[in-house]
Every structure is written in structure tokens, then in C-alpha cells.
Design brief:
With 325 residues, this protein is α/β, with parallel strands linked by helices. It folds into 2 domains: 6-203 and 291-319, TIM Barrel; 206-275, no CATH class. 45% of the residues lie in helices and 15% in strands. The strands form 2 sheets. An 8-stranded parallel β-sheet has the order 1-9-8-6-5-4-3-2. It has a 3-stranded antiparallel β-sheet with strand order 7-11-10.
Length: 325
């Protein structure tokens, strides 16, 4: 059995499970594996490095004959990068963190579906006006960059604004129980990031993946330290949730000093990232990290999460049918 929603039927998915387009993590191999397993794989376009993006999009296109897509950061996007992504003919382009209106017509013109990730009602209204085909309501529990609203109240608020546009839930979802909860709220699918970070096909250090699988949600924090040290000028309403390691604890309350000393700190930080040093490296992680116990193949994750979601939904049905209630 599969879980059929309007969203999953339109894209030919077996399960309403979407890979979050995590920059530097969701590469072509991971996206292809998720799509082939019956979910929707999205390559994380990050800040739009054309050489990297071209390589990863070639991998996903060669690795799956099913629906797949690309996620791009709206505030840093330039026309050349969008044109490059569209040239590979993805099924979906997902835009996050900024004005989507100036990119919507080009995406539609290429016959590509537009998915907009939003963090509040104003973003949802803008996505509706831009002609979004799908809207992702992203809560602050998410790993990496997000807003300040919690997933559980945000999803129904966005649903009320979206009308007939399918809404997906994101933020704090790592297993089938979370997927089922999203569907019961009225979402058409769930977008998962942190759980797929701890997968065999994800890019990045294997050691950091193991650290992720042994971490707790209470060990995560919203921070700007990794943006400051890398010189990424994110809009102020978006900070990133990561494991609260030595680097975060050292610099979180000293951002001005970090910015001033970035030329000397950045090389050390980048080396720690290459070495997989968990005390200094950037490990984006959502509050759902408690639910991750091991690093597994992406296909196994899709199937297991999908089956658990089915079981949870059947439990809901059984409760509804209980004559004692």
C-alpha cells in the first residue's frame, strides 16, 4: 500500500515524503535515491555554485526517471543559476528565503512546477500571489535556516491562506509519526532534512553524520555564527539551527568580534569542516535529531518512514471507528 495525496498523485510518488534541499548535503545521488524509492528528491542548490550545481544535477538526472527537483535560495539567486537549473528539466523548483515573484514567470515558462517554502503567513500570501503550485510551511524546529514560528500552528495557518494550493509541512519531522501528523493537520506531504542528512548518500563527513545520529534536540540552537564566519549576509529574520558545539558556544555572543576576525578564523573553520571535527564544524540539525539512531541508505529511510506513516494513520482510523468513543 502507498499513501496517496493530491501532491503525491500529481508527482507520481509512492509516499508523500520530500527530501529537503540542504545545501552541501542534498546532492544528486541522494536526491536520485529518494526519488527512486518513491519520494521526491530535491538537490540543494545552496548559494548557486554553477560548477557544483551542474555536476549534481547531471547525477540526479542520470540516477532517476521519476520526479525530482532543485531547491534554490531566493535572496542569493541570479538569473544564470536559475537558467542552469532549468536546463536540466527538473519537475520542481523550490524557492526559499526571499522574494519569489521575480522568478516565478521564468519557472512557469519552462513548464516547471513552483514550490515556495515560507515561514509565516505573509510569506504564504506572497507565494499564493506568485502562483505557487505548492507551498511548504517550514517551522522553526527545522535544521538549518528557518524563521521563528513553530511547525504545528504554522501549517494550519498556511493552509487557511493557501486555498486549493497543496501545502507541505517541514520542521521537526524525522519519522513516519511526523509524516502522519502532518497529513492529519491537512498537509499533503512532509519535507524532511535532518533525517536524510544521516543517510549513506548525503554529502559531507561520515563522522559528522555519526555525531548527528548520537545527538539530542536539546543540543541544538538557533545561531548566526556560521553565516558570519562565512560572510553570508542572510536576511535578519532567518537564523540557522545547528548542534551547539564549541564553535557555537565560543562565538554565539561575540558576533561582531567574529566578523572582525573572520579572515583568521575562517581557514581554521573550513579545515575543521574538511576534517569532520564535531567541536568546530557546522552541523545543521533540527530538533527531531533525537529520533535519529543510525546512518542508513536513503531508500531504506523512505520505505521505513512511509510504512510507519501508514501504520500511524491506520491507528488514527481505528480510534475514529472505536464504538466506545
Amino acid at each position: 500500500m502507498t499513501i496517496a495525496t493530491t501532491f503525491s498523485r500529481r508527482l507520481g510518488l509512492d509516499y508523500p515524503i520530500v527530501l529537503a534541499p540542504m545545501g552541501g548535503v542534498s546532492g544528486g545521488l541522494l536526491a536520485a535515491a529518494v526519488s527512486e524509492a518513491g519520494g521526491l528528491g530535491l538537490v540543494g542548490g545552496g548559494y548557486g555554485d554553477p560548477e557544483w550545481l551542474r555536476e549534481q544535477l547531471a547525477l540526479v538526472r542520470a540516477g532517476t526517471g521519476r520526479s525530482w527537483g532543485v531547491g534554490l535560495i531566493s535572496w542569493s539567486l541570479v538569473p544564470e543559476v536559475l537558467d542552469l537549473a532549468l536546463s536540466f528539466k527538473p519537475t520542481v523548483i523550490m524557492l526559499s528565503f526571499g522574494d519569489v515573484s521575480k522568478w516565478a514567470s521564468a519557472i512557469k515558462r519552462h513548464g516547471c512546477l513552483l514550490m515556495c517554502q515560507v515561514q509565516d503567513e505573509a510569506g504564504a500570501a506572497a507565494a499564493v500571489d506568485a502562483g505557487a503550485d505548492f507551498i511548504v510551511a517550514q517551522g522553526a524546529e527545522a535544521g538549518g535556516h528557518a524563521g521563528s514560528r513553530a511547525t504545528f500552528p504554522l501549517v494550519p495557518a498556511v493552509l487557511d491562506l493557501a486555498g486549493s494550493i497543496p501545502v507541505l509541512a517541514a520542521g521537526g519531522i524525522a519519522d513516519g509519526r511526523g509524516v502522519a501528523a502532518a497529513l492529519v493537520l491537512g498537509a499533503q506531504a512532509a519535507l524532511l532534512g535532518t533525517r536524510f542528512y544521516a543517510s549513506s548518500e548525503a554529502l559531507g563527513s561520515d563522522h559528522l553524520k555519526e555525531v548527528l545520529a548520537s545527538s539530542r534536540g536539546s543540543e541544538t540552537a538557533k545561531t548566526r555564527v556560521f553565516d558570519v564566519v562565512r560572510g553570508r549576509e542572510w536576511p535578519p529574520q532567518f537564523s540557522g539551527r545547528a548542534i551547539r558545539n564549541v564553535f557555537v558556544r565560543t562565538w554565539n555572543d561575540r558576533l561582531a568580534e567574529l566578523a572582525a576576525r573572520a579572515p583568521e578564523v575562517l581557514p581554521l573553520f573550513l579545515q575543521a569542516q574538511r576534517d569532520g571535527d564535531p567541536s568546530q564544524a557546522m552541523i545543521w540539525a533540527g530538533e527531531c535529531v533525537d529520533l535519529i539512531k543510525s546512518v542508513e541508505p536513503a531508500a531504506t529511510l523512505v520505505h521505513n518512514i512511509g510504512k510507519q506513516a501508514e501504520s500511524q494513520l491506520r491507528l488514527c482510523h481505528a480510534i475514529l471507528d472505536d464504538p466506545c468513543l
